[in-house]
Amino acid sequence: MTSSASRAVPTPQPASLKGGRTGRGLLVILAAIAAASLFIALLFGTLPISVAQVFDSVFFPIPGVVQDVVWRLRLPRAFAAFACGGLLATAGVLLQVLLRNPLADPYILGVSGGAALGALGALLFGAGLAFTNLAALVGALSAIAIVFALSFRAGDWNLHRLLLTGVVLSAGFSALISLLLVLAPQGQLKGMLFWLMGDLSHAGASGMAWLLLALVLLVFTLCAGSLNALALGALKARALGVAVSGLQAALYFCAALATVAAVLLGGSIGFVGLMVPHALRLVGVNDHRWLLPASALAGGSFVVLADTFARTAWAPQQLPVGVFTALLGVPVLLFLLSRKP
User: Fold this and answer.
1) pLDDT tens sequence across 163-210
2) First-residue to last-residue Cα distance in the chain
3) In whole angstroms, what is the distance from residue 310 CA to residue 328 CA?
């Protein structure tokens, strides 16, 4: 009787997490911003297209140049950018809960470094896009395996070792990447630098990335109460009945897979996983029921707008999207920090 009663007791929520009405309102606003960002991505580019032409191409498609540009070039790229940003922001939220470290971001585990090393090695030998993505995947999975092997001992996690292993591995990968850039022929150097700074010009179909994003959001939004408890500390979470080790393993692997999917889609697009969750927390979103979907929407919109700016600011020359995620994100985050008492 006692055990069943204890299981029936809901996980207590801190007062700061009780903001359902605010969370719903924010999601509506962010959904509208997401739709607007996708529309802007369709509207702007090297070929001028009017608002009426965008609407006609989307809802009443007629074969022609405008339809080809919208459906074959801009819309797939906008969807890939949104999925990439959503995955990075979601991974950032999960890792900040796992490590209880506000500086944690999707690249802190060395996943991006492993992927970059594999991709740049393939590019150095003149590999095509498919083999480059395969090499990046192998590098990223190798980094995940190394960090996991060194951090999970005797059925439990050592989060300090996890963080330290990721940082050390990232430093090692950075050194090897620098070596590859020094050895690379001049003709290949620009493409390698674009990959390192984020490049969505070669983004392929994003269906699998969208599926992964939806699954991660669904699973962890349903487990939001456990995430809220874990954010208070492992001991408190265990006292509240949370299976801490299993949840930590799920957080690690799902965050790593989300990062891998984003890196394979758009290269190393920085600052999104760090900035977006912090910006939302600074405006008062702390409950993971709202923080996770809000981060996905905000991260996706942010990368779509940054990519649109990257391919139009110096048209027809396209610039790395990762440069603009930092240039646009830093002032926003500094502004929010300056307003926080």
Assistant:
1) 888 889 999 999 999 999 998 888 888 888 888 888 888 777 889 999
2) 47
3) 11
**CA–centroid distance for 153 within its chain:** 28
Q: Which residues of 8-33 are buried (b: 16+ CB within 10 A; e: fewer)?
A: eeeeeeeeebebeeebeebeeebeeb
Structure tokens belonging to residue 278: 């912090």
* H/E element, 182: helix 159-183
State the burial class of residue 292 (Cβ atoms within 10 Å of its Cβ: 0-12, 13-18, 19+).
buried
Distance CA 286, CA 195 (A): 33
Tokens of 290: 């709202």
Q: Can you list the alpha helix ranges (DSSP code H) found in 198-287?
A: 207-222, 224-231, 234-239, 244-266, 272-282
Total residues belonging to the chain: 341
Angle at alpha carbon of residue 169, lines to 165 and 173, rounded to 5°? 175
d(CA 54, CA 218): 32
Using DSSP, state whether 111 is helix, strand or coil: helix
Instruction: Tell how strand 152-153 and strand 156-157 pair up.
Output: antiparallel
Residues in Cβ contact with 264 at an 8 Å cutoff, skipping those fewer than 6 apart: 115, 133, 136, 137, 140
Tokens at 246, concatenated: 């299993």
User: Which residues is 339 bridged to in the sheet?
Assistant: none
Report the C-alpha gap between 272 and 89 in whole angstroms.
6
Question: Residue 156's beta-bridge partner residues?
Answer: 153
Q: Is the dihedral of CA 292, 252, 166, 160 positive or negative?
A: positive
Q: Which residues contact 250 (CB under 8 A, 6 or more apart)?
A: 219
Q: Is the peptide bond before 316 cis (omega within 30 degrees of 0)?
A: yes
pLDDT at 213: 96
Contact between 57 and 65 under an 8 Å Cβ cutoff? The reply is: no
Dist CA 231 CA 236 (whole Å): 9
Is the entire prediction scored with pTM above 0.70? yes
What residues in the chain have per-residue pLDDT under 50? 1-18
- Could you give the CA distance from residue 42 to residue 79 in angstroms, rounded to a whole number? 11
Q: What's the CA gap between 100 and 233, in Å, rounded? A: 8
pLDDT score at 219: 95
Cα Rg of the chain, angstroms: 21
